[in-house]
Amino acid sequence: MDEEYKPKWENRQKVIFGTLFFCALVVAYLLVWGKDTSLHETIATWSFILSGAVIGSYVFGAAWEDVTKLRK
Q: Does this model's pTM top 0.70?
């Protein structure tokens, strides 16, 4: 086993971009067909929060991996 283990970022990216795409679809749907209700406002707000959390985790995970690789 001479090869160093390299995680598959392609798999992670599929999940991340899929989640961001889903959040964008939810917000777009609410913009076009959504009513001005408290429920729709909450759904839109949490879609943005989920998007921010996914992006933050993605960046943090990449930085964490880089730091752990540099320590070796």
A: yes
